[in-house]
């Protein structure tokens, strides 16, 4: 069988989904259905009733991946981030996850996550240049 390789520098979600589909099928054949689900807790501005931040995570493979955590600058230092992470951890425990993992940059919140019990398991120096990207995990008992 001969395959053709096409390139685009304007990739869309259609490209992403088409490439992801056979990967998920292969992985499912090896590890079975991971029971993947996406979850979110949102922070809303009560005056505008719009989402201004929150936490978005995916559950699968027995772990929770916190993909996004954003607390608006005006709300930082009031415990919103801790509350969102506590809710995510509680759900991960209820769902039987072995742990939670996430990534952050040196200019974002690595110390915040360390205070919550997360440990660095990997890092990429100078990504982006002058900064570090950290990968953290917290194993759940």
Automatic annotation (TrEMBL):
Residues 1-141 form the N-acetyltransferase domain. It comes from the Bacteria. SUPFAM superfamilies: Acyl-CoA N-acyltransferases (Nat) (SSF55729). This is GNAT family N-acetyltransferase. Gene3D superfamilies: 3.40.630.30. Signal peptide: none annotated.
């Amino acid at each position: 069988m001969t395959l053709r390789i096409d390139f685009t520098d304007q990739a869309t979600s259609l490209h992403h989904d088409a490439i992801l589909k056979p990967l998920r099928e292969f992985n499912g054949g090896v590890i079975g259905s991971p029971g993947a689900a996406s979850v979110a807790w949102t922070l809303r501005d009560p005056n505008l009733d719009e989402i201004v931040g929150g936490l978005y995570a995916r559950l699968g493979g027995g772990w929770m991946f916190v993909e996004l955590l954003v607390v608006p600058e005006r709300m930082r230092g009031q415990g919103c981030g801790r509350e969102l992470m506590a809710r995510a951890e509680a759900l991960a425990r209820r769902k039987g996850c072995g742990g939670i993992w996430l990534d952050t940059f040196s200019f974002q919140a690595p110390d915040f996550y360390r205070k919550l019990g997360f440990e660095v398991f990997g890092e990429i120096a100078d990504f982006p240049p002058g900064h570090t990207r950290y990968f953290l995990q917290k194993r759940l008992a």
